[in-house]
Amino acid sequence: MLVFLAATVVVTLAGIRIIATADRLADRTGLGEAIFGGVLLGASTSLSGIVTSLTAASAGLASLAVSNAVGGIAAQTAFLVVADLIYRRVNLEHAAADANNMLMAAVLVLLMSLPLAANLAPEFTIFAVHPVSILLFIVYIFGVRSAVSLKNSPMWDPRTTSDTKEDTPDEDEAQIHSLPVMIAIFVGLSLVLAATGFAIAESGAVLSKNLGISQTVVGALLTAVATSLPELVTTLAAVRRGALQLAVGGIIGGNTFDVLFLSLSDIAYRDGSIYHAMTQADSLLLIGATIITAILLMGLILRERRGIGFEGLAILASYAGLMAIQISIG
Asked: Buried-most residue among 82, 212, 287, 330 (CB within 10 A)?
């Protein structure tokens, strides 16, 4: 328990520090907050989670590996509602309107559908790796390339209103450090996040065994939330800095990257296809995360102005119901 708590604290502190560097790099590189948050920041804050799933899968704990990845997606989307509550001026999805965020949310729905299809299809592996694991990487790369293309040559833009927050670079702040220094800081903090993932996985496995709690419950409620804390911290910090596209993009991009946990876990899991080692609770977790993401995508399209909107309430209710079912099953 002490190791788990200590690793969680380190993850949180590293997440606080990395957001300022990410915001400056988004301005300096010209990628913009939505792209940088959706791809690079999302990937870096997910490193602790990916190490957690890999460690669990290599130890033969398939359910812990899957539930950690998928539980993180559900938790991180719920964190976005928390950020929406803090940003009181207007609905966060309205203010952070960006076509790239909607595109990546749609890609995420597609990615989460593939493991479910693999679970229901006949088991087939090549060197103990399911073909869907390769397909997940292909779809992810396609989504990232499409997002960059959309950024460079947009076919349409969201309607600008008085409550829309534009992504405008802060030139003065971006010049605080040189580009190589900022990249080094970003990479260093990313490695810290990755290292803590190992400690969280090992301690989570021990907690599951000694407390008699199922791997799915430990993964969805303990390790997933712990490894998702960088996303919560970076999202809240980004909202306070006014980097709204970075906040929303970081969550959606992190969730998209989290699906790749399943691919890497399938490679690390040597007893066959990890998709066929999933329990009923794991499959239900995947369905719940897909529903929550679809609700978020609807909110990004409809763009309600005031409060947290229908999507915020629906996401919180869905997440609470999903976790309650997981506890009852476990």
From this structure: 330
